[in-house]
Write a structure and sequence with these properties.
With 1430 residues, the chain is mainly alpha-helical. It is built from 59 helices and 13 strands. The two termini are 35 Å apart.
Length: 1430
């Protein structure tokens, strides 16, 4: 029957048809559970009769492997699943080789097809296939009879892979790297045993881990020799020949020990063992999945050493080594890697940049160029053209600079590129934005083009420019403007420079003065060459890009022939502007090209005129033409108010263009300046009063809408430029008008197109700023609120995020201006609060703008207004900005913290340059974290305070308020009663509070010293994480420097306590040691001590069980004992501390530390913001405790070099652990045991067989079994009253381990929280979790009572039973209470029994997760003892 089933399955697969395979899959899934159940019954060890022959069994296995050879993953999956069952039962009867199919299931990449693709694969499918393949390999490896050729390497391989499957338990992953390294070396020396494709599958499993920490850690190990593959392009040394067999010893004779060299060389596989496909499909994809978060910090649990690196930089160096080593073997591999990766649309540009840098570095090593075809270069350019459009300009230039450098390392294969292909390459590179700062890629491009044959760079530019006027170039085609830009760049790179263009420009523009010139296309192309030649800095000035001045430093005009061409060019621009009409026919509306769009044409000609004005400032022809255009347009506008609106569009566009190009009004020379001012105001009001009137000749509604939108655009652009003129006039008559203008602008929003919003806002901002600064009486709150609301309404209409950011910055500088902030009657606090709340919802730029403006205005007023905003300053010191996913960028191209969503090449970033005054990110250190900008501004203010001109009493009032409030924050119950988890809100509040206190410590005066000391040492008794305690200790040390007597009393009162926690003890001894031993401590702190009290304080800790505290106490005793009255006891103690060799060496290291280590850097803004950070962006400073512990470890290594293992851990610790393990196993450890054997033993967690999901989905649904195949226990844990995610995560893990029915939580969203996942690991995916809100608990409990469940509550009541005396019913709902208030009284009547856990300690409560776990174990134990079946 089985063979018949397989024949049916194989019908479609054998035809290798996608349609047939897809139709076969339902049959596969239908019969797979039947096969998995029939095979054990037919061939199992308990079966007495065999129903089919061995030949049939072999035939069945061969048919299954043919299914596995299909490219369809579902076929592989089902085939592997059934093969697992066959091998479990029929291993001795199946002689065929399954290894190719196992490798296909394990490998996450294979040949040209990468299997790891989020778009095409279900992660669960891949995981299931991988686990089935691993299980099948385990079965084969463990069967010695059928696999005699398999050596121990395969056992190690399976063990490594199984550990990697437990990816959320980092310690299990960390232990495999030694074995992986040995496998890699074996692979390189004897590939017949195990090829690199198997090692690659193992490494890929780690690099594609779902745990980001494991993914980063695996990348680090891979690129730092951790997997046994060299990261150097120099071939590593070969391993030594095999050692002779060990000498035998008599029974009871100890094996002689051999000393290991401390840094013995490790033998590594050469880097060339890696394949380009492995780099492309595994390494780059793994790093790419980190989404630019490539910084990695990690503490090695075994060695306690810190890893702090940038994985992207490591990849650059590693790839450089690979390219340098492999290039001599097969240069084509390098080209393949380049072309495969650089055009990958899913690869971040930052990784493409790393790839280019690696090729550049490889060239510096090998001095050998890469051969690359013109086709490949053009493919790269085409891809980059698309991707660089949304990248910030600075990042774009950095990338292009590296791309140009990369081109210098290549040689173009024959045939060489034709002119069209060269221009297409050059079109990737933009024109310089700043005439004084040419782009850095120019030299590299020149070097690359110089390598082209036939002296291309010297001879081609002139002829290409001439040909451009008369013909169209062949493919790849470019628009005329882009072609002209590329030709201008080519001329700029050539020795000919400007002379390569002037001949063609003269040919095209010489006859342009005539209105009837014969070739408009030729003339237009000549104009484009002139414009782009100016942009590339080879035209302009005197004609060659340079300005010439006379002895009076006056600019000399261009040559008359050039002036003639400029006059023709400007006239051509004006003629083209006048020809533009917004009334078009239906053909345009049905789909004209972009270049025929009237608005686009106006913007282009505006840009052309601006370029001419900028690069020919010495041309009288251009300036007079611009002035003429402005005045004639204004005259027509003001004289013909009833003209058609289409005429107004053209006139308004001419006005805005002329004003932006520096046009001047004719009445500026009138002797009475008031007349010119009045005239400008009159013009402004006239333009403002213009309205769009529909034209009867409009051919379509779309045409009219285009004209209307353009009318509004140019109207507001003109008003924005005129507003800067009229509101620069100090005229009180304009105050009321400015207020009315702001409200008018807000009222026009509905009729204003999106591209005109920025000009409307600029007009509104100028008017609002004028109104606030020039009002004779300060505006009321109602008036200001109306003004600010009108401005904000404009901002909300803006669609481009990067432009809205600039508008918000300008808005905040107007709102929080010096006059507003310093006026005590102006209440800006609600508005500030509103902006900060919006900043917390993924809009951090709002918080940065508001905080920057507020702090800047406070500083401009000497700091005095800060007292009124002290609560806001307090909040800023504790503020953490949300992380925002930035647009793909390269390196440091994007300004720190900016939320650029896109960038338009036609827009400029300096739209709001006039409002960028004040505190900016330039005031912060270079490497500060993105999420600390707002807090950085507040810390900057605190650091500025000592040098400020603020009144001393006002300053004291401000800083003392902040100091005491920051300390009081730490007495909140969330901090005093709990030690919050790292990364949580309260953890950050405590951390940030002490960072701020470090800056404020200099202001601790005798007036508040007693309060600060009492609060500080009480806070130090709370359990605190290391980074927070570091800043706490720094703050305390600084306070000792200022008020030693006050703080020393509190220190000794704590130190004399018999019940002093180890953490508090360490902090007190560090503070004491620093103040007594450090050269940085003040004289007051070093000498103002009662030495007898010091001795009495440290004496108990000389014998502390904590080695660190004991060492500190010994150092202090050695420093103080000679200074007190001598007794035999003190003399003997000092003699021992003075003369003992280990004491001397340890003291030397400690004194060196205390003498050199400076906390001054931690008391500055720079020190706080640039402290080392972990992968979650949390500060991880080098704490005093860790530094001293390192010195103690270093001492041990020096004193006992022969007693350390390979990673520096004392061997006695390793052996003690091994003895403990063997004792549990009932084994004895002999001295003859090989010490190295222990290094190959590591913790394994084998996957349960039923995790391979060999049952059908339908059977699983109807089963009472869990994912591991065990019967679920009928206990439901109800945790609806618990609101802390870590406790719920722990309960989920406990429920899954004991196979409970389900867990009830208040909200299913908790499953997505990081702190839930961190504790539950993967248990949340395997246990049934349901949500029941607290208000629905009554209904839930009543329902389950009717279903036969007993409600058992864990609560201390007068009738509670001890847990160990209570017999749990089979069907139980375990009700857990809130961490603080327990189970509400109203729920107790619904409870059948209350149980409690007997206690013998002082503390009256256990953590709710621990309590629940104890009850769950008691229930499980009772059921296991009874053998109950659920």
């Amino acid at each position: 029957m089985i063979i018949t089933i397989l024949d049916l399955i194989n019908i479609g697969v054998s035809k290798n048809s996608v349609l047939e395979i897809s139709s076969t899959l339902p049959i596969l899934h239908l019969f797979s559970p039947i096969l998995t159940r029939l095979i054990p019954s037919l061939y199992g060890s308990k079966s007495k009769s065999k129903f089919v022959s061995i030949a049939d069994a072999t035939s069945m296995a061969e048919k299954l492997t043919s299914l596995g050879s299909s490219s369809n993953l579902d076929c592989k999956n089902v085939a592997l699943g059934v093969l697992c069952v066959i091998h479990a039962e029929l291993t001795a009867l199946v002689p065929f080789d399954c290894f190719p199919y196992i490798k296909a299931g394990l490998c996450m990449y294979d040949g040209d097809e990468c299997w790891v693709s989020e778009d095409t694969l279900d992660n669960n499918t891949v995981q299931l296939m991988r686990r089935r393949a691993l299980h099948l390999l385990d079965l084969i490896v463990n069967n010695a009879n059928n696999n005699a050729n398999l050596n121990q390497s395969w056992t190690h391989y399976v063990a490594c892979f199984q550990s990697l499957e437990n990816e959320f338990q980092t310690h299990l992953v960390e232990q495999v790297w030694g074995l992986v390294a040995s496998l890699s070396l074996q692979c390189s020396t004897d590939p017949t045993i195990m090829g690199f494709d198997w090692i690659g599958a193992l490494v890929a499993r780690a690099l594609f881990s779902d745990n980001p920490t494991v993914r980063k850690l695996s990348l680090y190990r891979f690129m730092s020799n951790g997997v046994g593959i060299s990261n150097d392009y120099v071939p590593p040394p070969l391993p030594p020949p095999p050692l002779p067999p060990p000498q035998t010893t008599h029974q009871g004779q100890k094996k002689p020990k051999t000393k290991k060299a401390k840094n013995q060389p490790s033998f590594l596989a050469p880097i060339t063992i890696l394949t380009t496909k492995f780099f492309a499909q595994v390494v780059f994809k793994s790093l790419n999945s980190l989404s630019l978060n490539t910084h990695f910090e990690y503490i090695d649990d075994r060695t306690s050493s810190k890893i702090n690196c940038d994985l992207a930089s490591m990849l650059r160096d590693f790839l450089t080594s690979y390219l340098a080593a492999s290039f001599s073997l097969n240069p084509s591999h390098s080209t393949t890697l380049l072309t495969d990766l650089i055009v990958s649309p899913s690869l971040h540009l930052s990784l493409v940049q790393i790839l280019l840098e690696a090729f550049i570095n490889q060239y510096e090593i090998s001095k050998t160029r890469i051969s690359i075809s013109t086709h490949d270069v053009l493919a790269i350019c085409s891809d980059m053209k698309v991707r660089l459009k949304i990248v910030h300009p600075d990042a774009k230039i950095k990338f292009l600079n590296n791309f140009a450098k990369f081109l210098t390392t290549t040689e173009v294969a024959n045939p060489p590129p034709n002119p069209s292909q060269v221009l297409f390459l050059l079109s990737l590179f933009p024109s310089p934005l700043n005439p004084n700062s040419p782009f850095p890629f120019m030299d590299s491009l020149k070097q690359h083009l110089s390598n082209l044959p036939n002296d291309f760079l010297s001879k081609a530019p002139g002829s290409i420019a001439s040909a451009f006027l008369t013909m169209d170039f062949p493919a790849p085609k470019l628009p005329a403007s882009k072609t002209a830009q590329s030709i201008a760049l080519l001329a700029a790179l050539s020795p000919l420079q400007s002379s390569a263009l002037w001949a063609s420009i003269n040919k095209g523009l010489a006859s342009a003065h005539s209105s009837a010139y014969s070739d408009p296309v030729k003339t237009h192309k000549a104009l484009l060459l002139l414009i782009h030649g100016c942009e590339h800095l080879i035209l302009g000035g005197s004609g060659n890009g340079e300005l010439v001045v006379n002895n009076k430093n006056d600019m000399l005009p261009p040559h008359p022939s050039i002036e003639l061409l400029l006059a023709n060019a400007s006239n051509l621009i004006f003629d083209e502007l006048n020809k533009i009409t917004f009334i078009v026919d239906e053909q345009f509306n049905n789909g004209a090209k972009q270049q025929n769009n009237p608005l686009s044409n106006i913007l282009n000609y505006s840009k052309y005129l601006d370029v001419l004005v900028t690069h020919f400032p010495n041309s009288g022809t251009i300036s007079s033409s611009v002035n003429k255009l402005l005045n004639s347009s204004i005259d027509k506008l003001t004289a013909t108010a009833t003209a058609t609106s289409t005429d107004h569009v053209t006139l308004l566009s001419c006005c805005s263009i002329a004003l932006s190009c520096g046009g001047e009004f004719e009445f500026d020379t009138i002797t009475d300046p008031n007349l010119s001012k009045d005239k400008i105001v009159e013009i402004f009001k006239s333009v403002r009063g213009l309205e769009f009137v529909s034209s009867a000749s409009a051919s379509s509604s779309s045409s009219e809408q285009n004209a209307r939108s353009s009318f509004q655009l140019f109207k507001w652009e003109t008003l924005a430029q005129l507003s800067q003129l009229i509101f620069s006039i100090n005229d009180s008559n304009l105050v009321d008008y400015s207020f009315e203008l702001v409200n008018f602008a807000a009222g026009e929003l509905s009729a204003t197109p999106t591209n005109a919003i920025k000009y409307l806002f600029e007009t509104s901002m100028c008017a609002a700023e004028f109104y606030i600064n020039n009002s004779t009486t300060y505006p009321s709150d109602v008036t200001l609120k109306s003004l600010f609301s009108a401005m904000w309404a404009t901002i909300e209409e803006e669609e481009k995020a990067w432009r809205k950011k600039g508008m918000v910055t300008a808005y905040c500088q107007v709102v929080f201006s010096s006059r507003n902030v310093s006026n005590k009657t102006c209440n800006l606090k609600p508005l500030f609060k509103e902006l900060m709340e919006m900043a917390a919802t993924k809009k951090p730029y709002m918080g940065r703008a508001a905080s920057s403006a507020l702090i800047t205005s406070c500083m401009k007023n000497g700091g005095e207004p800060a007292v009124g905003y002290r609560d806001q300053l307090f909040d800023l010191l504790l503020h953490k900005e949300p992380k925002v996913k930035l647009v793909e960028c390269v390196g440091e191209g994007i300004e720190k913290g900016e939320n650029f969503i896109e960038h338009d090449d036609n827009e400029e970033d300096n739209d709001n340059d006039n409002v960028n005054e004040g505190l900016t990110t330039d005031s912060l250190p270079d490497e500060y974290p993105q999420t600390a900008t707002v807090r950085g501004f507040a810390l900057f203010f605190l650091e500025w305070l000592p040098a400020s001109d603020m009144n001393d009493e006002t300053k004291r009032e401000l800083v003392e308020y902040l100091i005491l409030k920051l300390l009081d924050l730490n007495f909140h119950k969330e901090l005093s009663e709990n030690n919050p988890m790292t990364g949580t809100v309260w953890f950050l509040k405590k951390l940030y509070s002490f960072q701020a206190l470090c800056l404020l410590s200099r202001f601790v005066s005798p007036r508040i010293a007693d309060q600060v000391a009492d609060k500080l040492f009480d806070i130090m008794e709370f359990m605190t994480h290391g980074p927070i305690r570091f800043y706490m200790e720094c703050f305390a040390i600084q306070c000792f420097n200022l008020e030693a007597s006050t703080f020393s009393k509190r220190l000794f009162s704590k130190l004399h306590k018999n019940k002093c926690s180890s953490q508090l003890q360490s902090s007190l001894l560090i503070i004491l040691g620093y103040c007594i031993c450090s050269d940085e401590a003040s004289e007051k702190a070093r000498t103002n001590w009662d030495l007898e009290e010091v001795i009495s304080g440290i004496a108990p800790w000389l014998g502390s069980t904590q080695g660190f505290n004991r060492a500190c106490a010994q150092l202090l005793a050695h420093e103080v004992l000679p200074k007190v009255e001598q007794t035999p006891y003190t003399r003997r103690l000092f003699s021992y501390l003075e003369e003992n060799p280990e004491m001397k060496n340890l003291r030397k290291k400690q004194l060196k530390f205390f003498g050199n280590f400076s906390i001054a850097g931690s008391l500055t803004m720079n020190g706080i913001l640039t402290a080392p950070r972990d992968s979650e962006d949390l500060p991880m400073p080098n704490t005093l405790v860790e530094i001293l512990k390192t010195s103690m470890q270093s001492l041990y290594e020096e004193m006992h070099p022969d007693e350390l293992d390979a990673v520096g851990i004392p061997l006695w610790k390793v052996l003690e652990k091994e003895k403990a393990v063997r004792a549990l196993l009932g084994e004895e450890m002999n001295d003859s045991d090989d010490e190295d054997e222990f290094s190959t033993l590591f913790q394994r967690k084998i996957l349960p067989f039923d995790l391979l999901d060999l049952k059908s989905t339908e059977l699983a649904k109807n089963s009472r079994s869990n994912a591991a195949g065990n019967v679920k226990q009928q206990m439901i844990v109800c945790a609806s009253l618990i609101d802390k995610a870590p406790n719920l995560g722990g309960l989920a893990r406990t429920c899954e381990i004991f196979a409970l029915d389900k867990l009830i939580v208040p909200d299913l969203k908790v499953k997505k929280m990081d702190n839930f996942k961190a504790v539950s690991v993967s248990a949340g995916d395997w246990v049934d979790i349901e949500a029941v809100r607290e208000e629905d608990l009554v209904e839930f409990l009543l329902k389950h009572r009717t279903l036969g469940y007993s409600i058992v509550a864990l609560e201390q009541t007068s009738k509670s039973m001890p847990l160990h005396e209570f017999e749990f019913p089979l069907k139980t709902v375990l009700l857990l209470g809130d961490e603080q208030r327990g189970i509400p009284v109203e729920l107790l009547p619904l409870v059948d029994t209350c149980v409690e856990i007997p206690q013998r300690g002082v503390t009256r409560s256990l953590n709710v997760h621990v309590t629940g776990a104890l009850a769950i174990w008691e229930y499980s134990k009772q059921k296991m003892l009874k053998g109950a079946q659920c």
